[in-house]
Amino acid sequence: MPSDTVTMLATLVGAKLKAKRLMLATAESCTGGWVAQAVTAIAGSSDWFERGFVTYSDAAKQEMLAVSARTLAAYGAVSEETAREMAAGALAHSRAQVAVAITGIAGPTGGSPEKPLGMVCFAWAIKGGVVSAVTHRFNGDRESVRRQSVIAVLQGVLELLEG
Length: 163
Hints:
Layout: H1 3-19, E1 24-28, H2 34-40, E2 49-54, H3 58-65, H4 69-75, H5 80-92, E3 98-104, E4 119-126, E5 132-137, H6 142-162
């Protein structure tokens, strides 16, 4: 997808959040802060972006987002369970009302038959609401998987705010 897709989605997310007077927090692993970078590239994002957490290691997920050691041991860092806890942790450790989380295997190494390359788990949370999660399998190289992940998470925020 062209990079302007990311910019367009980030702009739409910002407009929706601003209109609803909501703030966004991000919890990212495999995207390494790309979502936070995309949304803060939009002028005026300080009106609707609160903070971002880049939690690449399991220890960072536990320390910064309160992801349970039990969850990591039982399901692994790349799981919907971990993504849900990351999103909930981002809400709990920020002043935001909306949070997103991404954890996955962007490659080119690290995949397994159970968790193949391109597997990415997402979660979206809104204060006082249910934390939803989904897993996608993307094709392509590391950058492509990461870009598709950013697009998917931003689309998910739009769906959350419209629903």
